Structure formats: structure tokens, C-alpha cells
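Box S2. Input/output pair 1.
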Amino acid sequence: MHPDQLAALDAIATHGTFEAAARSLGVSTSAVSQRVRALEASLGRILVSRGTPSTMTDDGAVVLRYARQQALLAQEMAGELELEPTDGEAPGASTAPVRPSVAVNADSLQTWFTGLLRRAADRDVVLELVVADEKRTAELLRSGRVMCAVSTTGARVAGCRATRLGTLRYTPSIAPALLERTRRTLGHEPTAGDLPTVRFDADDDLQDLALAAAGLPPQRPRALVPTAAGFAAAIEAGLGWGMLPPGQLAAHPTLAAVPGLEPVDRELFWHRWSITSPSLDALSDDVAEAFAAK
């Protein structure tokens, strides 16, 4: 597998079309197509599903992950050796800062993950963050879209290793005004089953887990609010109750506990490519420290 072939595959995955990939590489569309066809022929596999956009096949995702791992290692080597750019490379390309890509869920990014951002700033690290539900991280890792991810499962992803970060506690939280309004409407103290919920998105099951632990059925949410700040604001406004992690809960001290419900503990794991990489080693240490200090 020639580096030019792997770079063409990476560019297609990044930009979505052969034409855009060619522009990013400074070559013709025909050259990109020839490189990908040669790579497919050498492996005996179809790697790219041609279309608009063009996407990686399952086999293509495997090759893409290794292509990006190889590019990361080459970039780290060039930086350590302080290599000058080769012919055709832009000035500084060989020693450009490594850009670790990380998938992280929105409420972690809003709370404990800010400690990682501060550490990255102190070390002048350039990060590429992908906000995604913790359950989607395996897919992003397998596809090569990200190098590292925060996940709720410790199940191993091919080409990666996982370490347990610890437990994050989510507390059922509600605006006192909503409790009082419901109390007046019912004429008695409300239970969790009487109160409307809000969810972060369709995959958010934390509210249902809290209800199930109390022996109550799941509820249809009043609204889906898919940003961390907006979700907490919706709860504070009295739209419904929802589950908040410690950092967000501390930022909204007027909220009350939902009657009859207990907090839900969710384990978090850190996944990263299993290659030996100083950049990923340092990032992993920073993530562990940030979570421990939450």
C-alpha cells in the first residue's frame, strides 16, 4: 500500500467526493480515482462506495483506520526528527501539530471534559472534537473517524484498547415551579409518574432507567433538547424533569430532586487506538486526570 493511495482514501473519507479529495491533495480527480482503484486491486476488496457522497465500505473503514494511524505515526516521527518538507509538501507540513480526533458526549464536554481542554491548551495540543452519544463511539472508532472516544461500554473495538475512567452520577432534577404547578393541578403531592420529562435526544435512556428503578413505566418526553446547555435550561424553565451530571447540577442550584427517584450511575470508558503514540499516550493521561478531578 503506497502512502499516496492511503492519502487518497483518507481524502475521500474526509471530503466526501473524488473531486473534493483531488482539490485537497492538489492532484487531478483521475489521479485520485487511479490511486484508489490500484489500492482496491492490490487488496482484492472494494473500499469505496461511489456516489454523492462517496463513503467507505466496511473493508474501506478498516483500511482507512490503518491509513490514519500510519499518517499519525509519520507525523509524530517527522516532528521528533524536525524533518523538512519533501517535494510537493507545503512548508511546515511535516512538522504540523498532530491533531488527535476525539468523540465525546455533550454533557461530558460541558462538564468534566473541560479539564482536558485546559490541559490541552497548556500543552498547545490541537484537538478535533466530535460530539456524539456515548453509544455511537464504537462505530466512529471502527470507521477511523476518530482516534479516541469516551464511551459507556468497555467492549473492545478492533484496533483499540479501553480503560475504565470511573462512574458518572446523573441526578433526576426538576424545577420547583413545575413541582408546585403539578401539585396544584392534582391536588396532592405528585410522583415521578405524574411529571413530564425532557430528553437530550431519542437515544437518551437515562430518564427511563431512573423510572424503571422505581418500578415506573417509561414516559413519552415533552421535548428533545439536543444541547447540554439547552437541556439544563429546559429543566430549569419547567418544561420537564431530566437527568443531570454533577457539573451541570452545580451550575443550576435552584433545581430540586424528583420525588421518588434515585440517581443513576453510568460507567465511562476511554477508548484509543492501540498503536504506540506519544500524542495519544499524553492525551489519555490528561483525560484520566480530568475525569478524576471532576
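Box S3. Input/output pair 2.
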Amino acid sequence: MSSPSRPVTVLDKPAVLAGLFEVWRDIDALVGELGDTQWQTATPLPGWNVHDVIAHVIGVESMLQGVATPEVDIDVSTLDHVRNDIGVMNERWVRSLRDLSGAELLETFRSTTAQRRQALSDLSNAQWNDVGFTPAGPDSYGRFMRVRVFDCWMHEHDIRDAIGAPASTGELVGPAGDLALDEMATSMGFVIGKRAGAPDGSRVSLELTGPLGRAINVAVDGRAKVVDDFGDDDPTSTIQLDGLLFTRLAGGRVSLAEHADAIKYGGDEAVGRRVVEHLNYVI
């Protein structure tokens, strides 16, 4: 038997589910008392308001429960903010749920996530580690669920931005944020090596500060890859910024121009700046 072309990501099921269930609870609490006007507030995502973001989360979790994507009255692929087949699926769910009131949508969110909690809790370890489709390419179902933590966590902060309810330090600290950053870290080799074109021999350290603080280190040696550290070598470029700002830039939710003064560079500043300019990798 030939070995797989890429390693399978094996993740602790209770840890990932703790993060996923936490972010669902946080979203529930965040939108639970919204008024009608707040549900219609635009988010940083083009074409989507708060109602649409919750509808999107419902749609993905419904799909994972085996519910067919609904038909809608227009060809959503023609919309400016729909860029690929996944975007088409997302938009069909969003449009199909637009007639629900905020209260009705919240009840649908609660019933859908309750079904998902039960289904995920009932998964065997073999099913959890089984390799199949994920948005990051073929990998374990557990990896897919970590992607779901990332997606839902990002959308929590989309809603927070829209309604003017930024997360406190206590609200940022927890398994959901940690897992979201774990997932984002896996893409930094691609961002730094491919998108930013860091030259061979580069050692780039993203130094995230604040409640989401951590270091993400990428070494370029033929190809760029995330490493725990650089051994006895110093980084050739350092980039220091707040952890939440990192996630908003990487997700394309805020513009670099508005936050350029909040980022500090060390070492080869040209490479560091090029990395930050190409940080927006989320589709």
C-alpha cells in the first residue's frame, strides 16, 4: 500500500468539540437579544448582514446533517460577492432563510446546532479520524470540525464588528479562539512562501500579542513550512501585531491601510511588509 501524499491531521475530539460548542454558545448569546434593526446591520462581509451570517452558519451545519441545499429564485453565481461553488451553496442557504424573522432564525440556529451537538458527540473515534472532503483539502473529519470552529469564530467577530460589541479579554480567551488560530497557522507557510514570495533562507516570525498571543514561525528552505522554532538561528523578519487584528486582516475583514500603524517590523522589513500585504488568504 502506498503512503498518503499528505499527512492526516489527528485532533483530540473532546478538545475540538469544546471549542465548537463554545463558539455556538457565544453566537447564541450575542444575537439572542438583538432588535429587528440590528439583525439587518451590514457586516464586514460584502452582501451579508447579521441575519445572513447566522443563516450561513445554519446552512453549513444543515448540509453536514445531510440536508439538501435549497433552490432559490435567482442564479446566485452572478452576484458580485459570490466567487466559487462553495459561495453559491452558501448564498442559496442565505437567500432561502431571508424571510424568517430574527426570532425565527435564532430558533432555527438553536435547533440546528442542537442536532449537530448530538451527532458530533455520537461520532466514534474512527469516524472522527476518517479522511474525506474538507475545505482545506482531503483530511480527517476532525480537521473539518476545526475548520468549522475557525469559520464560526470569525463570524462571531463579524457580528461583533457590525453591532459594535467588541469582545472583551475574557471573551477572547478560550478554546474556540485557540483552535481558530491553530487552523489559521497551518496556512502561514502558503501565505509567506507562495503569496508573499519570501526568499529561500527566510525565517519569518509572526509575533501575535494580546489575549490571542502566540508566535507563528515559518522557515523557507526550498519550501515554506510552519515550525516550532528556528533552533539556534534568529528570525530574519519579525512582524508584531495584535492577535485579533491578525485574524481580521487574514480574513479580509479590515484594510491594512487603516491599521498600518499598529504593526511593527524587525529584521528584513521589506519581507515583513510583503507578508502583511499578502496576509488576506481566506476565500
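Caption for Box S3: Residues 38 and 146 are 29 Å apart (CA to CA). The chain has a mean pLDDT of 95.
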